[in-house]
């Protein structure tokens, strides 16, 4: 993973010296979604940062999470900016809120990730299936000999609240 | 809280042409705008001793601009930053004046935002390697400002029932304002229906929800109220400034209420410092990188109730002749994209009463207040103007300016 990987025309660089991201992508390569847990206040956090946003502790461990969550918001990219995404457009970019630590420590807090919503074949999910409130789960897209990208797909579980889509 | 209310003034404004093919360097653009701002202030280059700029690795440095104009600086700084920088650098300039390090400070932004480093992300920006913090979103095809900000608008629609048609009123209003601005890139008024019928860029944004990538340079001169008395124009007083104010955390996707933007914190700083409230503001400059960013800013700063931004911007309040016109130059949506500076420049002109519109005697400061398209854009006797800068949903700024009568 120390070698750069070209994915959709972008050069992704995750060297071993990237003390935030290297372990995250190493776990993804093994099919696990991990987040950081503060070794002092025990709270989870994402994206991986060097310190704890709540107690400023520098001590942390990687912990696996269920990879299950809910679409919090989304966009549909119709005009791709990166040339390598043109054959994917229109494609969804979604913000997923994980089931872990929802509403903690404040009611509007949660562990959220930016991801694509993909089909089981790792193609962009069709727009009519993207909705705020939809239940999703992590999957892992191999994009190089030693690098996998966490992605999310629909689970088909009943949503906790009515689904919402952009009208029209 | 008691700030340095009124002890500093914006005394000079300068801008180049707004175009999509400047045909010259950001250094040449910057020198022209800075020179115009110094002359507008009634100063000579040697009177300036501080220089501040902001950039995205796409501009010329202060030392080049100063060298070209024979300016010897006591200090300078070129800071990386986006659309909340103008107001922030005004605050930094006030600090330099307060401690006596500088007597007059120039602030500039120079960019070939269309012909060289496209602000929208295509070209050079899309070709940079993905590492560090960018690993959280760019691998998923999320790069441009529209792609990164629009999730907030989508969630606002979900939580409050805000609609695309409501925010399209921002473009419609600004386009009518731009029709009275000879410098504007897009002077043709457009309707709400035309916004909604324009092609999708990133849903929920249409093409006409997005601002115009532009080549330009812009500049301000800030000095003390004492020195401002000798200027060419009535001084415009800084009542309060705050820049680069963050919300709970500056990476806004990951924590807190998704629809909350940094203005909720900036407003707690600037209104008490200025000794006014939103109801006292006559004209606004809410950052319109996109139609909905202006809406989110106006809501965050308390010009309407939380969640009511869509109703506010579609009520007529933000139009010339309305309660509180916004971006009377046409703003980033229609005049051209400047990373925020042009909206401050326009508000300075408004408070001076010297807007450069199509009124027959505009050059003598005489206006008709006829707000039909293509005529007048001077607000009648404004006393207080407010700018609301935006770098992202999580980073914002505010500048409250008063006319010499305040």
Can you give a write-up of this model?
The complex is a heterodimer of chains A (168) and B (406). Chain A is mainly beta. Chain A is built from one helix and ten strands. In chain A, a hairpin with a 2-residue loop joins strand 1 and strand 2. Chain A is globular. Chain A starts with a strand and ends in a 14-residue tail after the last strand. The relative contact order of chain A is 0.18. Chain B has 406 residues and is an alpha/beta fold. Chain B is 31% helix and 19% strand. In chain B, helix 6 packs across helix 10. The mean pLDDT of chain B is 96. At the A-B interface, strand 2, strand 6, strand 7 and strand 8 of A face helix 5 and strand 5 of B. Strand 6 of chain A pairs antiparallel with strand 5 of chain B, so a sheet runs across the interface.
State the helicity of chain A in percent bands. Answer: under 10%
* Straight-line distance between termini of chain B: 19 Å
Shape annotation of chain A: globular
Average of the residue pLDDT scores of chain A: 96
Portion of residues in beta strands of chain B equals 15-25%
Explain the layout of strands and helices.
The complex is a heterodimer of chains A (168) and B (406).
Chain A: E1 5-7, E2 10-12, H1 22-29, E3 34-38, E4 44-45, E5 60-64, E6 68-77, E7 91-98, E8 112-116, E9 135-144, E10 147-154
Antiparallel strand pairs in A: 1-2, 3-4, 3-5, 6-7, 6-9, 7-8, 9-10
Chain B: E1 8-15, H1 26-40, E2 50-55, H2 62-69, E3 75-80, H3 85-98, E4 104-112, H4 124-127, H5 145-160, H6 164-178, H7 192-197, E5 200-203, E6 205-206, E7 215-224, H8 225-228, E8 236-246, H9 263-274, E9 283-286, H10 291-300, H11 309-313, H12 331-334, H13 341-352, E10 384-392, E11 395-402
Parallel strand pairs in B: 2-3, 2-4, 9-10
Antiparallel strand pairs in B: 1-7, 1-8, 4-7, 5-6, 8-11, 10-11
Helix pairs in contact in B: 1-2, 6-10
List keywords for this structure.
heterodimer, A: 168 residues, mainly beta, 1 helix, B: 406 residues, alpha/beta, 9-stranded mixed β-sheet, two-stranded antiparallel sheet, 19% strand, globular
């Amino acid at each position: 993973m120390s070698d750069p990987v070209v994915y959709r025309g972008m050069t992704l660089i995750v060297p071993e010296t990237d003390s935030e991201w290297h372990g995250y992508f190493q776990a993804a390569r093994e099919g696990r979604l991990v987040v950081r847990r503060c070794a002092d206040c025990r709270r989870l956090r994402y994206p991986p940062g060097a310190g704890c946003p709540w107690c400023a502790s520098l001590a942390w461990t990687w912990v696996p999470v269920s990879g299950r969550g809910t679409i919090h918001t989304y966009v549909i990219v119709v005009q791709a900016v990166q040339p390598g995404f043109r054959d994917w457009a229109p494609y969804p970019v979604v913000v997923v809120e994980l089931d872990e630590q929802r509403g903690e420590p404040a009611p509007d807090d949660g562990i959220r990730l930016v991801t694509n919503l993909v089909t089981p074949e790792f193609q962009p999910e069709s727009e009519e299936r993207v909705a705020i409130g939809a239940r999703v789960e992590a999957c892992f897209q191999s994009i190089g000999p030693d690098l996998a990208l966490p992605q999310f797909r629909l689970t088909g579980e009943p949503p906790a609240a009515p689904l919402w889509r952009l009208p029209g | 809280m008691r700030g340095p209310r009124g002890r500093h003034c914006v005394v000079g404004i300068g801008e180049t042409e707004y175009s999509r093919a400047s045909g010259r360097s950001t250094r040449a653009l910057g020198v022209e705008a800075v020179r115009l701002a110094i002359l507008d202030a009634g100063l000579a280059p040697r009177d300036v001793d501080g220089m501040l700029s902001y950039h995205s690795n796409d501009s010329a440095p202060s030392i080049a601009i100063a060298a070209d104009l024979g300016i010897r600086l006591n200090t300078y700084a070129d800071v990386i930053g986006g659309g909340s920088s103008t107001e922030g650098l005004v605050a930094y300039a006030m600090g330099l004046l307060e401690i006596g390090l500088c007597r007059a400070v120039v602030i500039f932004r120079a960019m070939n935002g269309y012909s060289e480093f496209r602000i929208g992300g295509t070209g050079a920006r899309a070709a940079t390697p993905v590492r560090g913090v960018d690993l959280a979103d760019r691998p998923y095809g999320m790069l441009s400002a529209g792609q990164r900000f629009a999730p907030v608008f989508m969630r606002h629609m979900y939580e409050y029932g805000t609609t695309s048609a409501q925010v399209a009123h921002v473009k419609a209003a600004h386009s009518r304002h731009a029709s009275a601005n000879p410098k504007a890139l897009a002077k043709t008024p457009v309707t709400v229906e035309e916004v909604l019928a324009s092609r999708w860029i990133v849903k929920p944004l249409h093409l006409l929800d997005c601002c115009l990538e532009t080549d330009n340079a812009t500049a301000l001169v800030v000095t003390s109220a004492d020195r401002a008395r000798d200027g060419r124009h009535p001084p415009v007083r800084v009542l309060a400034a705050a820049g680069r104010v963050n919300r709970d955390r500056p990476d806004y996707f990951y924590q807190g209420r998704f629809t909350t933007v940094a203005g909720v914190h900036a407003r707690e700083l600037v209104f008490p410092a200025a000794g006014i409230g939103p109801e006292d503001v006559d004209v606004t400059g809410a950052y319109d990188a996109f139609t909905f960013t202006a809406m989110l800013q106006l809501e965050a700063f308390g010009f309407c109730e939380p969640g009511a931004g869509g109703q506010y911007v579609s009520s007529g309040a933000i139009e010339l002749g309305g309660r509180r016109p916004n971006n009377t130059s046409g703003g980033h949506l229609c005049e051209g994209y400047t990373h925020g500076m042009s909206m401050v420049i326009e508000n300075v002109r408004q408070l001076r009463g010297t807007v450069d519109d199509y009124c027959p005697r505009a050059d003598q400061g005489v206006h008709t207040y006829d707000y039909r398209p293509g005529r007048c854009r001077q607000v009648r006797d404004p006393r207080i103007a407010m700018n609301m800068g935006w770098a992202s949903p999580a980073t914002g700024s505010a500048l409250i300016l008063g006319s010499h009568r305040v």
